[in-house]
C-alpha cells in the first residue's frame, strides 16, 4: 500500500468516516480489507490455520499474533508496569487497565467495557442467549468458560485447592472467593447501608432489598422473586419436585437446606446453643423461639382480643376460640 493511501485511510479515522458498510449488519469500516475480514464472522469461515496447533483464524494478522504464544516471544511491553505480551492487541487492551478507558458501550443499559468480547458476553444478559450447552444434562450457559467449569461437576474434577483447609473447587475463582471465609474480607460495600458482602453478586442481590426489585417472575402464579435460585425453589411448589434425598431414610425435600436440617435428626447434631441456659437446638429458628422464654417477647398478636403469643402456631390455635 502506498504512503498516500495509508495517509488517506488515517485521515478517515479523524473524520469518523467509514465508507465500507456490511450489508448484513450495517457495521461500517475504514478499509475494504477490514470489511472483508468482518464478513467472515457471518459465514463462520476462518481460512488461516496455525501450523502448530491447527487453530484457525479470520485474519492472517490474528494467526501471526497467535503464533507468538507457541514461540514464547513477547515483544510488546507495557511502559507503565513492564508486563509483556505476545501481540499488540493484548497490550492495547491491557493499557486500558491503567487509563480506565472503556470504549465499548451497551446500547441497552449504557454499561461500558474495556474489551469488545466482554460487551458481546454482557449483551446476553439482555437477550437471554445461552449458546453453550452441556452435552450431559443440556444445561445452557452464556459463556464457554462457565460451561467448562460446569462440566467438572459431571467429571467430579476439582483441581483447585484451598491452601488453608484443603477444600477443593472446580474453578480457581471459587477458591479466591472461598479464601475470604478465612480472611474475613468483604470487599463489596452497599452504598445505601454500608453492609459489606463477600462477592459482587451477593451485593447486587442485597441492593434489591433497598430498591424492592424482584426481577424473577413465576409463570404459573406470577409470584415475583429476588433471585433466580429463589424462583427455581418456588417452582417446585407447583411441580412437586423434591430433588434432595436423605441417604439414610430416603425422605425427599424440595430444598437442600431442608435436607441439611433433616440430617440432624439422624446425627443428633444441635449446632445452635442458647447463651442464657445453654440449651441446644437443631435450627436457628428454633433457637430464636426459645430465646423468647428468656426475653418474654411475644411478637404475634390476636387482631380480635389483642392477646399476644411467642409463636405463630399458638396464635393460630388461639384464633379458633373466636371462630
From TrEMBL:
<keyword id="KW-0804">Transcription</keyword>
<keyword id="KW-0677">Repeat</keyword>
<comment type="similarity">
    <text>Belongs to the krueppel C2H2-type zinc-finger protein family.</text>
</comment>
<feature type="domain" description="C2H2-type">
    <location>
        <begin position="188"/>
        <end position="215"/>
    </location>
</feature>
<dbReference type="GO" id="GO:0005634">
    <property type="term" value="C:nucleus"/>
</dbReference>
<dbReference type="InterPro" id="IPR036236">
    <property type="entry name" value="Znf_C2H2_sf"/>
</dbReference>
<keyword id="KW-0539">Nucleus</keyword>
<feature type="domain" description="C2H2-type">
    <location>
        <begin position="132"/>
        <end position="159"/>
    </location>
</feature>
<feature type="domain" description="C2H2-type">
    <location>
        <begin position="20"/>
        <end position="47"/>
    </location>
</feature>
<feature type="domain" description="C2H2-type">
    <location>
        <begin position="272"/>
        <end position="299"/>
    </location>
</feature>
<keyword id="KW-0863">Zinc-finger</keyword>
<keyword id="KW-0302">Gap protein</keyword>
<dbReference type="GO" id="GO:0000978">
    <property type="term" value="F:RNA polymerase II cis-regulatory region sequence-specific DNA binding"/>
</dbReference>
<comment type="function">
    <text>Krueppel is a gap class segmentation protein.</text>
</comment>
<feature type="domain" description="C2H2-type">
    <location>
        <begin position="300"/>
        <end position="323"/>
    </location>
</feature>
<dbReference type="GO" id="GO:0035282">
    <property type="term" value="P:segmentation"/>
</dbReference>
<dbReference type="InterPro" id="IPR013087">
    <property type="entry name" value="Znf_C2H2_type"/>
</dbReference>
<dbReference type="Pfam" id="PF00096">
    <property type="entry name" value="zf-C2H2"/>
</dbReference>
<dbReference type="GO" id="GO:0008270">
    <property type="term" value="F:zinc ion binding"/>
</dbReference>
<feature type="domain" description="C2H2-type">
    <location>
        <begin position="216"/>
        <end position="243"/>
    </location>
</feature>
<keyword id="KW-0217">Developmental protein</keyword>
<feature type="domain" description="C2H2-type">
    <location>
        <begin position="160"/>
        <end position="187"/>
    </location>
</feature>
<dbReference type="GO" id="GO:0000981">
    <property type="term" value="F:DNA-binding transcription factor activity, RNA polymerase II-specific"/>
</dbReference>
<protein>
    <recommendedName>
        <fullName>Protein krueppel</fullName>
    </recommendedName>
</protein>
<feature type="domain" description="C2H2-type">
    <location>
        <begin position="104"/>
        <end position="131"/>
    </location>
</feature>
<keyword id="KW-0479">Metal-binding</keyword>
<keyword id="KW-0862">Zinc</keyword>
<dbReference type="GO" id="GO:0000122">
    <property type="term" value="P:negative regulation of transcription by RNA polymerase II"/>
</dbReference>
<dbReference type="Pfam" id="PF13912">
    <property type="entry name" value="zf-C2H2_6"/>
</dbReference>
<feature type="domain" description="C2H2-type">
    <location>
        <begin position="48"/>
        <end position="75"/>
    </location>
</feature>
<keyword id="KW-0805">Transcription regulation</keyword>
<feature type="domain" description="C2H2-type">
    <location>
        <begin position="76"/>
        <end position="103"/>
    </location>
</feature>
<keyword id="KW-0238">DNA-binding</keyword>
<feature type="domain" description="C2H2-type">
    <location>
        <begin position="244"/>
        <end position="271"/>
    </location>
</feature>
Amino acid at each position: 500500500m502506498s504512503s498516500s493511501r495509508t495517509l488517506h485511510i488515517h485521515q478517515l479515522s479523524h473524520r469518523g468516516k467509514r465508507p465500507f458498510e456490511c450489508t448484513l449488519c450495517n457495521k461500517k469500516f475504514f478499509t475494504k480489507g477490514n470489511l472483508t475480514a468482518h464478513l467472515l464472522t457471518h459465514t463462520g469461515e476462518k481460512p488461516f490455520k496455525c501450523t502448530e496447533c491447527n487453530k484457525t483464524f479470520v485474519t492472517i494478522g490474528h494467526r501471526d499474533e497467535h503464533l507468538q504464544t507457541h514461540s514464547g516471544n513477547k515483544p510488546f511491553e507495557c511502559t507503565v508496569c513492564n508486563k509483556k505480551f505476545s501481540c499488540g492487541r493484548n497490550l492495547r487492551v491491557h493499557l486500558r487497565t491503567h487509563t480506565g478507558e472503556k470504549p465499548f458501550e451497551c446500547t441497552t443499559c449504557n454499561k461500558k467495557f474495556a474489551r469488545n468480547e466482554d460487551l458481546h458476553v454482557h449483551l446476553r444478559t439482555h437477550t437471554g442467549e445461552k449458546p453453550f450447552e452441556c452435552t450431559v444434562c443440556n444445561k445452557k450457559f452464556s459463556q464457554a468458560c462457565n460451561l467448562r467449569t460446569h462440566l467438572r461437576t459431571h467429571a467430579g474434577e476439582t483441581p483447585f485447592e484451598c491452601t488453608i483447609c484443603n477444600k477443593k473447587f472446580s474453578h480457581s475463582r471459587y477458591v479466591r472467593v472461598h479464601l475470604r471465609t478465612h480472611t474475613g474480607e468483604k470487599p463489596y460495600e452497599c452504598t445505601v447501608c454500608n453492609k459489606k458482602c463477600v462477592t459482587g453478586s451477593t451485593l447486587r442481590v442485597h441492593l434489591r432489598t433497598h430498591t424492592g426489585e424482584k426481577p424473577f417472575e413465576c409463570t404459573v402464579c406470577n409470584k415475583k422473586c429476588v433471585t433466580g435460585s429463589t424462583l427455581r425453589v418456588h417452582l417446585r411448589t407447583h411441580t412437586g419436585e423434591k430433588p434432595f434425598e436423605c441417604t439414610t431414610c430416603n425422605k425427599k425435600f424440595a430444598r437442600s437446606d431442608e435436607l441439611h436440617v433433616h440430617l440432624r435428626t439422624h446425627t443428633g447434631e444441635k449446632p445452635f446453643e442458647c447463651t442464657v441456659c445453654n440449651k441446644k437446638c437443631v435450627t436457628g429458628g428454633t433457637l430464636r423461639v426459645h430465646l423468647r422464654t428468656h426475653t418474654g417477647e411475644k411478637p404475634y398478636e390476636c387482631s380480635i382480643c389483642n392477646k399476644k403469643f411467642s409463636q405463630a402456631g399458638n396464635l393460630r390455635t388461639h384464633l379458633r376460640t373466636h371462630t
